[in-house]
Amino acid sequence: MRKTAILFGCLLLIACKGVAQHDTLPSFRDTLAVYEGLFTETEPLHLTLKFDLKNFQRTRRQEKYQPAQMTCHMCDSFSVTHPVRVKARGNFRRDNCTLPPFWLNIRHSGIEAPALEGLKRMKMVVRCRHSPEYEAYVLREYLVYRIYQIVSPYSFRVRLVRLRLVDTGRKDRVTEDWAFLIEPEALLARRLGGQVVKSDRLAMATVNREVMDLLAMFNYMIGNCDYSVTGRQNLKIIALDGPGPSGFIPVPYDFDYTGLVNTHYAVPGEALGIKTVRERYYLGLCGSRERHLSVIRELESYREKISRLILDFEYLDDMEKMDMVAFIQSYFNAAQKEKFIDREIMSTCR
């Protein structure tokens, strides 16, 4: 079976060290050795995508792929290029972004790689528009995924990308920007030992209560009301095959409508009665005071790790990082107050 992991793994330093030390190109074994680190490595992946970006922007509302070339830059002395296909995705961002996020289809790009067996496509999040705040939005959303990885093992992995775009529709005009790849749901399910559930008729009662309670409090912490089990709104649902929590496992994604990312276009649902996504609103299940306290304490145990992750992230401006930390800390400070559960959780829980 032909696979495509070389498109992404070729960047890592193992093979580059081989070039420097032995003055030879990385072997096939060298490149295979790095595939397992696609979504575990934290160093940015350096990629070039070459395609007709002008046509892509003009036809972004169409459900049609167009051809592209992807080049992975392992180091100055080695890169690998393969054919891929790209298609716009997303609802709001497809209609409102100059450059909406991609589906990156790598099904027929070649190179066998067991670690990515069965992979057809993955999501790439890019800067929606060219103004500076949109670059921060990409990096802040990437960090939200990383924060949830701290909080829960049932989370999508992401890989930061330094992306070079070559627009063949504009005389090979080159732009460079930040982006990130999201672990495909098939890989997520395989890693967790389960299957992806496609039903849109699920109720909150069908998902694991402990996982859902933590997810709901996390979403409250980051100012996220744009999710729902029914309809799988910004949640993927995994059914575990073997030992583990009972019930379906919800895994959140798409965080650009959260207060922590704080995009200027994000607005809360009218039915919630809040004016901005920086106002928090709890959408989880009602439970006993002890149950809610337990979840609050669990999140509190990650407080230092979350702040440290944000502050140590070198690619985001200091003012942006301080804003993220302040927003997170405002939750932790509020959660310590005596009336927090009664006023903020029990008043809106389902």
Observed structural traits:
alpha+beta; 7-stranded mixed β-barrel; 21% strand; disordered N terminus; 2 domains; single chain; 350 residues
How would you portray this structure in words?
By secondary structure, the chain is an alpha+beta fold. It has 2 domains: 181 residues, no CATH class; 140 residues, no CATH class. The chain contains 12 helices and 10 strands. It has a 7-stranded mixed beta barrel. Strands 8-9-10 form a 3-stranded antiparallel sheet. Strand 9 and strand 10 form a beta hairpin.
Quick structural summary:
The protein is an alpha+beta fold. The chain has helices at residues 6-9, 13-22, 28-32, 53-58, 92-96, 132-151, 185-192, 209-222, 289-300, 303-311, 318-335, 340-345; strands at 45-51, 66-75, 78-88, 102-105, 121-126, 158-167, 173-182, 194-197, 235-240, 249-252.
Strand/helix succession = HHHEHEEHEEHEEHEHEEHHHH
Class inferred from helices and paired strands: alpha+beta
Distance between the termini: 47 Å
What overall form do the CA principal axes indicate?
globular
Sheet with the most strands, sense and barrel status: 7 strands, mixed, barrel
- The total strand number stands at 10
- What ranges have pLDDT less than 50 throughout 5 or more consecutive residues? 1-15, 17-22
Residues in β-strands, percent: 15-25%
Rounded average pLDDT: 88
Helix tally? 12
SSE arrangement:
Layout: H1 6-9, H2 13-22, H3 28-32, E1 45-51, H4 53-58, E2 66-75, E3 78-88, H5 92-96, E4 102-105, E5 121-126, H6 132-151, E6 158-167, E7 173-182, H7 185-192, E8 194-197, H8 209-222, E9 235-240, E10 249-252, H9 289-300, H10 303-311, H11 318-335, H12 340-345
Parallel strand pairs: 1-6
Antiparallel strand pairs: 1-2, 2-3, 3-4, 4-5, 5-7, 6-7, 8-9, 9-10
Helix pairs in contact: 6-10, 8-9, 10-11
